[in-house]
Amino acid sequence: MKSTTVVMKPRSTVTNRVLNTGEAVSVIESEGGKAVKIYAKPDQFGHRQEIANIPYDKRGLPIFDDVSKFTTKIEKPKNYQETNSESRRIAEMKSATFALKQAIERGEVNKNQFTDQQLKEIYSGKAQINKYTWHHNGQSSPNNMQLIPKSIHDAVQHIGEGALSEGR
């Protein structure tokens, strides 16, 4: 049986670079491990402040736990096996957004960390929330989703759940 969650040679192609937003990405390799540091645009004196330090696990998958705004376990959509991967991912993201809405309503998540637009998207059950992305957490079961700031997620290039589930 072939694993759909662990690849033998993950294609994480992270390089040192400056993003079009002015933020910088720096790859750190030490003792066989890898991490990505993300820095803000330079201030007036040319100094950059670290925004995030994202380590990779031994399988080459990023660990976003320190920057996750919300983590939830989601159920696989109905007809999981018969559903195409894009439709399945949209259903999973909507399910995660619904769980976030419930957590806000129960007072478990501070709604003040979101803008009015983001709250509107959360309360209307959108699959995508402005300036955030839903990330399948590779360190847990395949049904664990994390809400990650989009700028950080996009800076940390990695193979995603869609490619993993297709055996790439």
What does the model show?
- The protein is an alpha+beta fold.
- The chain has a domain at 70-165.
- It contains 4 helices and 7 strands, in the order βββββααββαα.
- A hairpin with a 5-residue loop joins strand 1 (17-18) and strand 2.
- The radius of gyration is 17 Å and the shape is globular.
- It starts with 16 loop residues before the first strand and ends with a helix.
Shape: globular
Q: What percentage of amino acids are in beta strands? A: 15-25%
The helix content, as a percent range, equals 10-25%
Class from secondary-structure proportions: alpha+beta
Strand order of the largest sheet: 1-2-3-4
Pfam family, one: Colicin-DNase
Which properties best describe this structure?
single chain; 168 residues; alpha+beta; globular
List the helices and strands and how they pair.
Elements: E1 17-18, E2 24-30, E3 33-39, E4 50-55, E5 70-73, H1 85-105, H2 116-123, E6 132-136, E7 144-149, H3 150-155, H4 161-165
Antiparallel strand pairs: 1-2, 2-3, 3-4, 5-7, 6-7
